[in-house]
Amino acid sequence: MKLAELHAIAQAMVQPGKGILAADESAGTIKKRFDAIGVASTEQSRRDYREMLFRSEAAMQGCISGVILYDETIWQDAADGTPLIKLIEQAGSIPGIKVDEGTQPLPSCPGETITIGLDRLAERLARYYQRGARFAKWRAVIDIGDGIPSYAAIHTNAHALARYAALCQAAQIVPIVEPEVLMDGGHDIDRCYEVTEFVLKETFQELYYQKVALEGMILKPNMAVAGKKAAKPAGIAEVAEKTVKLLKACVPAAVPGIAFLSGGQSDQDATAHLDAMNKIGGLPWHLTFSYGRALQAAPQKAWAGQAANVAAGQAAFSHRARMNALASRGQWDA
Ligand code: 13P
């Protein structure tokens, strides 16, 4: 492993004023997004949509440090025959790849899951590196509910994340370590805080056991937020303060950066929360975005599968990217 190179890539991914576009929706997830805008999900429509995003020059050159791709996309060509991954590179952005293979039920933990994909991961990483990927992503999913999460589910998922991260670094690929605590329930922000704290502490312990170099990875966590069905949603300032406190308690300063997932927050909230955290300032790591829905909901709606709407889709994407880029510097203004 050449740690200096991994560190330089990680630093570039979280450089102030830029963040990551998570465009790695699996076939099932992108179908759900396309269903919502009345577009059939085909190999070509997925290609056309992602080509539109990657050719958004204002967003890609000015605000997007890296793009997380799904396996299908990394091998696809644009309509003119240029590999999609080249469009990303030509914009000065770094291509990355989602390498987990989704979740499966954990038999010992009813209602909980384990993320799979470790088998033959070393060979897959080598192929992705050859194709141009310089970072990867693996998402573990922790749900909050009655009697969950269990320690067994937290531990098993943290262990898999650390195994994945170690394999990435051995393949000269920067791992994005994503332990996502879902915001689906009716829990309050303090319950989210408590669960996320446990999950992050367990994750960093496992990363240590697997000898993952913290300087050559990025953390992609959820923020401390109330569940979507909570009686009392938390305000922007409370989310920012509690998330910063939580991260300070759990994330070693050697980690170059933290790139949040949006997790179902509204576009505006995802931007406002990131901005409020960066306005607090004085943090040992860069805080930026690695948003999927909070960057793509607007362009998906504007595009709606119509070639005639490509410019509108690109404008919508560029706007959200610019707002989040400002938030990554704490310079966004509502
Ligand atoms: P969201 O921002 O939509 O949560 O997606 C980010 C992501 O990559 C989840 O794995």
UniProtKB/TrEMBL annotation:
Keyword Zinc: no
PANTHER family, alphabetized: FRUCTOSE-BISPHOSPHATE ALDOLASE
Pathway this chain belongs to: Carbohydrate degradation; glycolysis; D-glyceraldehyde 3-phosphate and glycerone phosphate from D-glucose: step 4/4
Organism: Rhodopseudomonas faecalis
Similarity field: Belongs to the class I fructose-bisphosphate aldolase family.
Uppermost EC category: lyase
UniProt keyword annotation of Lyase present: yes
Catalytic activity: beta-D-fructose 1,6-bisphosphate = D-glyceraldehyde 3-phosphate + dihydroxyacetone phosphate
A Pfam family recorded for this sequence: Glycolytic
Keywords: Glycolysis, Lyase
Taxonomy of the source species: Bacteria, Pseudomonadati, Pseudomonadota, Alphaproteobacteria, Hyphomicrobiales
Name of the protein described by the UniProt record: Fructose-bisphosphate aldolase
Gene Ontology molecular function: fructose-bisphosphate aldolase activity
Biological process, per Gene Ontology: glycolytic process
